[in-house]
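Hey, resending since the last one bounced:
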Amino acid sequence: MKNITITETIGKSNEKSPKVSSKIILKTPKGTRDYNAVEMYLAMNKISNIKRYHIARVYRRDNPAITRGRYREFYQCDFDIAGQYDPMVPDAECIHLTHQILTRLDLGHFTIKVNHRKVLDGVFASCGVSTEKFRTICSAVDKLDKMTWEEVKKEMVEEKGLDESMADKIGEYVKMNGREDLILRLQKDTALSKSKVAQEGLADLSLLFEYIKCLNCDSNVVFDMSLARGLDYYTGVIYEAILTENHSPDGTVGSVVGGGRYDNLVGMFDPKNKTVPCVGVSFGIERLFAIQERKQKANEGKIRSSYTQVMVASPCKGMLQDRLRLLSLLHSKKICAETSYKNNPKLLNQLQYAEENQIPLVILVGESEIKEGVIKIRVTETREEVTVKKEEMVDEIRKRLKQLSNT
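The structure tokens again:
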């Protein structure tokens, strides 16, 4: 086991122990790299371009909350892009990746919140906050997903020494959320229109929304001014994904994905302070498992154990070759399908197999269907059946699968 501990460089940590860090302790098995270790790797090896992912154990200073999926030692999946590229293109890919993974995990509806550190800094400056208090006020704003505004305001005023009138002004901004409409509104805002740094951040966000629309992943993305992500090293766009469905009455498990742009972190480990722009995203694997377990309990322990989307079945004997042809067709269209290995399986056994393995759709083909050039599609859960032409089968299956994934 190889230990790399970052203490005084990031945050306020001053103990060189694998139990303490403001973000993540870099305790890695030999041959692997953790979140901040990759930045050290880039700096030490003079690498200025890389695109990579990994899954490994990471550590943080925190009070564990096991029921909420919050652990001190936990597995995390990281994806990072480093290099000089045009603005917001790698950032859009990170959001696209987040959207793809959460969609495929099928854990329920989710929201990807985005904000920009320059917008936050512009807000703080416009509200009269001194530069040295930006980060401490930012860390207070970051608690708005767990605390009410009144509680956060009290912390700003009583603990961080902020003037109450400044806190009230900040409150007006951090309660805002929207999409491109909010970006346009803030670009015309009387105070923020005078802030160069805020306008730069808003221009970035406007471009980001253009790109994620092209990637068809904008429907779940919200510009949320309360998103702050209290870590010091973020320099640009920040984002966080939360599930908006609870699978238990005791509440959510918090964010499941977080990330953003950190252009200065590599330079902190480079002897010549060479800057390598970076953007990345992290997936909390334990949290995702905790949500999956909740979902399983909510479904009374029933959870899909198979990736199969379609069961190819027949009520007639001697239809194996026809079933195999349909199976091949579905596979060629990238639809996960299977059929019984028996030549003459009983229909009841085929339907029970689909129910037991929670295969959402069954297609039924018999002699009459072959003659008429049609296929029956059966929804396993409701037992609803619809007959379609064979050439329309694939489109109908995809439509049904999409409908089922949204319910």
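Residues 36-299 form a domain with the BirA Bifunctional Protein; domain 2 fold (CATH 3.30.930.10).

Sorry for the duplicate.
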